[in-house]
Specification:
Blueprint (H helix, E strand, L loop, with lengths): L13 E4 L2 E4 L4 E4 L4 E2 L4 H4 L4 E6 L6 E5 L3 E8 L2 E8 L3 E10 H12 L3 H7 L3 E9 L2 E7 L2 H17 L11
Antiparallel strand pairs: 1-2, 2-3, 3-4, 5-6, 5-11, 6-7, 7-8, 9-10, 10-11
Length: 173
């Protein structure tokens, strides 16, 4: 998405934070890194811009968004945002894994060089992670509410395979 342009009307939006902007014409709040509009429903919006750690990847401050056709991983590189799209049609499986805290700590430390995630994970005996299997490879995320994310992604995979929309159509917002 072009930075600070409304995904519906294309007009310039007002930045409210580095990751959010508001379009006054359309009355919509947008997660700017992914270009996804918030719905106003907390149960839906928890799947937009959720912070995560991408285990094994050398990316910091990942945000995960469940968009209409793909899972979008975004992160900041310098002054711009980069992203990786994982289309639901290429996903072959989603599972919640139980990992020893030392596994998560070592994976996060290897990817991020230690830091707060290492301290937080070391206080736990085990943690749950979200494993996303795709035709291109596996992606493991340390994310809040991994069971909710797994249910959401499984639903999106089925909806994509059957051609039935699962999510609210955000283009009408």
């Amino acid at each position: 998405m072009e930075e600070n342009k409304c995904p519906k009307c294309g007009r310039k939006m007002t930045s409210t934070t580095p990751e959010k902007a508001y379009c006054m014409k359309c009355d919509v709040l947008v997660h700017t890194p992914s270009g996804t509009a918030f719905t106003g429903d907390p149960e839906e919006d928890k799947f937009i811009g959720s912070p995560a750690t991408w285990l094994g990847a050398k990316k910091r401050d990942i945000e995960v968004t469940s968009a209409l056709d793909s899972l979008i991983l975004t992160w900041k590189e310098g002054k711009t945002f980069s992203q990786k799209n994982l289309p639901y049609g290429l996903m072959t499986g989603v599972e919640v894994r139980e990992r020893k805290e030392s596994d998560v700590t070592s994976l996060a430390a290897a990817a991020l060089g230690g830091g707060l995630i290492g301290l937080a994970a070391s206080a736990l005996s085990s943690v749950k992670t979200l494993m996303i299997k795709t035709k291109e490879g596996d992606h493991e995320l340390f994310i809040s509410q991994p069971s909710d994310w797994a249910d959401r992604l499984r639903g999106q995979i089925v909806a994509t395979a059957t051609g039935q929309p699962l999510q609210t159509d955000r283009s009408s917002l």
